[in-house]
Design a protein that fits this description.
Blueprint (H helix, E strand, L loop, with lengths): L2 H14 L6 E2 L7 H11 L8 H14 L3 E5 L2 H11 L7 E4 L6 H8 L3 E4 L11 H9 L6 E5 L10 H10 L3 E5 L7 E3 L5 E3 L8 E5 L12 E5 L2 H11 L3 E2 L9 H5 L20 E2 L10 H11 L2 H19 L5 E4 L11 E5 L2 H10 L2 E2 L11 H4 L9 H9 E4 L7 H15 L1
Parallel strand pairs: 1-15, 3-4, 3-5, 5-6, 6-9
Antiparallel strand pairs: 2-10, 7-8, 9-10, 11-12, 13-14, 14-16
Helix pairs in contact: 2-10, 3-10, 4-5, 4-8
């Protein structure tokens, strides 16, 4: 198809959509307040490694209710640093879900570890703790090092249950909360536990990609309550460099560049202000100040955005409940943050194409990781994760973002019903 024909097709789709314009599955919302926050930072003395980073980290920690937050360049960098901080090494086995973005598994491979997938619960789409227990019980203790559960689509994992299981086998937990800022689950004491609060996971990570709840363009955050892990993350985020006199390994004499005999007061030499040490092999995974300024501005209205997502989810549930063409849907669940609203349908490809013809750009989340060609090389094959594979055959993520209008959502719902009628 040539460019002119593609434009004609796009124009026709726009008319079919009733002049609503393209309706994507997710979309950022940039306000004038966001723009001004970025402009002010661009005019300041710092574009990176400045005060906006710490401001964003402190505000985000307050939002999720934990002790420490470390801002990084993206969610993948956050996962990688977590795996490094937990000392994942070659051959270490780590369990995660196949229904997630590949980075949840890839972070283990970056460190030379071995990814072991466990199937999902077909009702929640989350990593099935029963399947994880089966894996652990089938091998001697010490076989596995950790678990990476994912708050998929925004639905919070019961991390208390996973923590209890992890304690039995001396495992660490990285909570992948990229989909779930503002999400929570209710623990055994009827207490709300925010995603990423560090009460059960050793580390948690978030993403600030444009389609997420909080947008920085690109960006990520790691949260933890562990002092040592926090210090390690700060070091690994910036090339493994330390700039703390109390932690230096080389002598002050070396740092100054003089023989001890030439130092005016050799009894109390001090390190010069310029001095720093690279003590580990880290990365440049820093977030910029103007991205942090955008994140801080967006965080101020995160609760409003979450409330709107819940309203959209409730409308989808009401309209599709009891329909025989819907095999399953996200529903309305306590603590769900609704990054995605997923339905399961027959004739998924036909519906997907029909929606695109009507300027509605639904999406698929996700192709099971264990069936990606890279992971097939490790022996994973079709049939290994039957629930995940069956989910993939039917899943479709509908438009879900705070600026989705009532008219747009009604149009999406009407077109889905029209297709199946």
């Amino acid at each position: 198809m040539n460019f002119e024909n593609r434009n004609k097709e796009a124009d026709q789709s726009f008319k079919v959509a009733g002049n609503l314009g393209p309706i994507p599955y997710g979309r950022q919302n940039i306000t004038e307040e966001d723009i001004q926050a970025v402009i002010e930072t661009l005019k300041s003395d710092y574009l990176t490694q400045g005060p906006k980073i710490a401001e964003f980290e402190e505000a985000f920690s307050g939002y999720v209710g934990n002790k420490y937050a470390v801002a990084v360049s993206n969610g993948t960098a956050a996962l990688h640093l977590c795996a490094m901080a937990l000392n994942v090494q070659e051959g270490d086995k780590v369990i995660t879900t196949p229904i997630t973005f590949a980075a949840s598994a890839n972070c283990v491979r970056y460190c030379g570890g071995e990814v072991v997938f466990a199937d999902i619960d077909p009702q929640t789409y989350l990593l099935d703790i029963k399947k994880v227990r089966e894996l652990l019980e089938a091998s001697p203790k010490g076989t596995y090092k950790g678990i990476i559960p994912v708050d998929f689509a925004g639905r919070a994992v019961d991390l208390e249950a996973f923590r209890n299981l992890a304690n039995e086998y001396d495992l660490w937990i990285i909570e992948d909360s990229c989909h779930a800022p503002g999400g929570h689950f209710i623990d055994s004491n009827a207490k709300k536990q925010n995603c990423g609060n560090g009460n059960f996971a050793d580390l948690a990570i978030f993403s600030f990609h444009p389609v997420k709840h909080i947008a920085c363009g690109e960006g990520g955050m790691i949260t933890t309550n562990d002092d040592k892990l926090y210090e390690k993350l700060l070091q690994l985020r910036t090339h493994g460099i330390v700039k703390d006199e109390g932690k230096y390994k080389n002598t002050p004499e070396f740092a100054i560049g003089l023989d001890e005999s030439r130092i005016p007061n050799p009894e109390s030499p001090i390190y010069p202000n310029w001095y720093m040490e690279m003590q580990d092999l880290g990365y440049n995974y820093r977030l910029t100040d103007f991205q942090a300024a955008l994140g801080s501005s967006q965080l101020k209205r995160a609760d409003r955005g979450l409330a709107k997502r819940k309203e959209i989810a409730a409308t989808y549930l009401k309209e599709f409940k009891g329909k025989d063409f819907i095999k399953g849907q996200s529903g309305v669940v306590e603590g769900h943050a609704y990054h995605l609203y997923v339905i399961e349908v027959e004739y998924r490809l036909g519906l997907y194409n029909f929606l695109r013809e009507n300027n509605i750009f639904a999406q698929i989340h996700y192709i099971p990781c264990h069936l990606m060609p890279y992971y097939r090389e490790f022996g994973w094959k079709e049939g290994d994760m039957p629930h995940a594979e069956n989910y993939y055959k039917h899943c479709l993520s509908l438009p879900m973002y705070p600026t989705l209008t009532n008219d747009e959502q009604e149009f999406v719902i009407r077109k889905i019903k029209e297709f199946f009628s």
